[in-house]
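Dear H.,

Thanks for agreeing to be a second pair of eyes. The structure we're designing against is below in token form, covering all 180 positions.
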């Protein structure tokens, strides 16, 4: 769990019988994302991405320009960076890109990548009313799911989160900032 307690400085808490603070190896005033699965935890902070094992030992650390989100499926690191966009791999080599460079969250599983391009106002958390869409990379090419390819998306805005269904990795869930 990440909580800034109204101070602007993020504190990471972990639960292991009781809640305790966790200080990443590289300190930062903000940790824009924390992602975890059964084998690892990925934290972005400052210009760094840190990957920890289940015992909270640092296993990998990379420096990027300005990462806002990162996921690691055990094989491939996917990074959303404010300045460089989507990067795949520890060395930062790119893949063909989706329709635009708006990236709010990323999800990766078995070589498949989903991008949630929504947004929210960074100062007061208001919606920006970006049309509902999501991008999917199957390892070869990108697909764009929007109101033209999937009419139900016409009623959704600011898709800000995306997660895989653990029981069916071919299925993903999208969450909009203001519209569900």
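And this is the sequence the design step returned. I haven't edited it by hand at all.
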């Amino acid at each position: 769990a990440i909580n800034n307690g109204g101070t602007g400085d993020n504190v990471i808490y972990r639960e292991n019988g009781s809640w305790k603070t966790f200080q990443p190896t590289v300190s930062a005033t903000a940790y824009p994302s924390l992602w975890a699965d059964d084998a690892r935890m990925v934290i972005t902070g400052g210009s760094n991405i840190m990957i920890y094992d289940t015992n909270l030992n640092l296993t990998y650390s990379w420096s990027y320009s300005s990462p806002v989100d990162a996921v690691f499926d055990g094989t491939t690191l996917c990074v959303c960076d404010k300045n460089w966009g989507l990067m795949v791999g520890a060395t930062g080599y790119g893949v063909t890109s989706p329709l635009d460079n708006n990236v709010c969250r990323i999800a990766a599983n078995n070589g498949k990548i989903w991008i949630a391009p929504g947004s929210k106002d960074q100062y007061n958390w208001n919606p920006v009313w970006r049309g509902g869409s999501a991008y999917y990379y199957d390892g070869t090419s990108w697909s764009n799911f929007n109101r033209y390819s999937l009419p139900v998306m016409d009623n959704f805005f600011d898709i800000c989160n995306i997660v895989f269904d653990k029981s069916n990795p071919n299925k993903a869930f999208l969450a909009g900032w203001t519209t569900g």
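Two observations from my side: The two ends are 22 Å apart (CA to CA). Residues 107 and 130 are 19 Å apart (CA to CA).

Warmly,
E.
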